Amino acid sequence: MARYIFILGTNWRLSLAEINNVINKPPYEGRIADYSASAAIVEFENDNIKDENFARLIYRLGGTQKIGKYLDFIDLRTLQSAFPEEVTSDQSIQIRHRKQISRTLKDMAYLIYGKIEPLKYFFANSIYGITFQKPYYKTLIQHFLPFVNKEWTKILKGKGAKNALYYRYPEDRIRKGTLNPIFPHHFFAYKLYEDERKEILYVMTEEGLYIGYTVNVTNANEIKKIDENRPYKDAKSSIAPKFVKIMIEFLNLNKPYASNRILDPFCGSGTILMFAHSQGIQTYGLDIESSRINGTKKNLKWISKILENPRKTPANQYQVGNITNLSQQFEGIKFDGIISEPFLLPFYRELPRYNDVVPIMEKTVIPSYTALFTEGFKVLKPNRRIVVTAPSVETLDGGRYRMDLEGIARQHGFDSVPIYGERYIAEKSDLDLQLYADNNSLYDDKSEVIRREFHVFEKVVK
User: Which secondary-structure segment (H or E) carries 241?
Assistant: First the structure.
């Protein structure tokens, strides 16, 4: 099996769920063989999968920062003997294991750079701990990082490189042990895609240290540019583009994407529709406010112009209307997916009282979500999905208020889809890293008050 390293985003549980969903179907069938809160080690069934295949994949993924090719592994005992957390008096064990690691690095030089020529070489060492909060991560930053910087310089020069330079992290961060690895945009800024310039990845899990090099990264700056430069913005209905991509991925749309119609019935400023449109999907939107629909149309027209293959979007695809009349608004149209992040609550700057939240939830929020499933059932194709977020609100005096979205969906013909699916994911002894196969929702903090729950539902055909 071909192994690759996936560097995860901040919400690593959701990132893992997205990867697990992708590798459940062609052409990327595989399994997550190991993981931490920073990265996943993915084994693909196709041994002949190429590095270039991941350019298209990482464009789709919202929760993956980088994809690297796996090269070798250092077991946990060897790593911790070479770089102990506590200083030991017997240096011989440390020296012996460091020499073993040096040989491992030397053996992979050709796999990273090919034949070393008398040229200038550059490398950036990026270290990912089990989490960035674990004490041993500080040991890796303060002792392992200087070691690999020195070793790679010696290896490259010893094999004939004219010079070998490395990315220098801020010294104060190294001393504190609070270093972040280089960001995806550095991959382009330092041209780490060139033959003589590479980012080398070191990913620690409970099993040991996986080593590889980066083959592709998400173009975060391009995504940010689209989000910031669009003509219409609505701060209240804003949603992170990376989160949008994860939501789209969970629709499990059939290929080609252009044959699919998706609907956002609370489309706001059209962020979800913009990024779906950029992937070639036919998009439809509904919102109760005409200003938002007009803004959505402007955004879709704008994104169409900057795409390499612009597509026309008929104006009647985006309509002003109420969720309760959804099936009438789009009469005769069947959708391949419904996707939305409804913004139905006030923007709380501080914890509200429980008795202030209940009336809003019962009179506005719950009826709107109920209509989403009743109307959604009418317009959605059989066995297709609704991917939606739902709010749960922390209150000042009554704990957290959350609605029973699974129950509402079940009453109206939808089954809840486990976020991690049925594919096997390696088990972890660390309680902070454990995943549960029957999880039907994941949390993502939108603010200190409102936490959004991520849900996937499928239309049941009896």
Answer: helix 241-249
| Cβ atoms 263, 330 nearer than 8 A | yes
- If you search the block for the tokens 């049925």, which residue do you land on? 422
Q: Which of 248, 283, 279 is nearest to 265 (CA)?
A: 283
- Residues 81, 144: Cα–Cα separation, whole Å: 12
Hey, what amino acid is at 276? A
Beta bridge partners of 73: 210
Q: Cα dihedral angle (225, 230, 235, 236), rounded to 10 degrees?
A: -120
The answer to whether the CB of 430 falls within 8 A of the CB of 129 is no
- The model carries a pTM of 0.93
Classified as helix, coil or strand, 7 is strand
Q: What are the structural domains of the chain?
A: 2-218 (3.30.2130.30), 221-459 (3.40.50.150)
- Higher-confidence residue of 240 and 444: namely 240
| Cα–Cα distance for residue pair 445/11, rounded to 1 Å | 9
| Residue showing tokens 């109206």 | 412
- Residue 63 and residue 246 in contact, taking contact as beta carbons nearer than 8 Å: yes
> Per-residue pLDDT tens for 27-81?
899 999 999 999 999 999 988 888 778 888 998 899 999 999 999 999 999 999 9
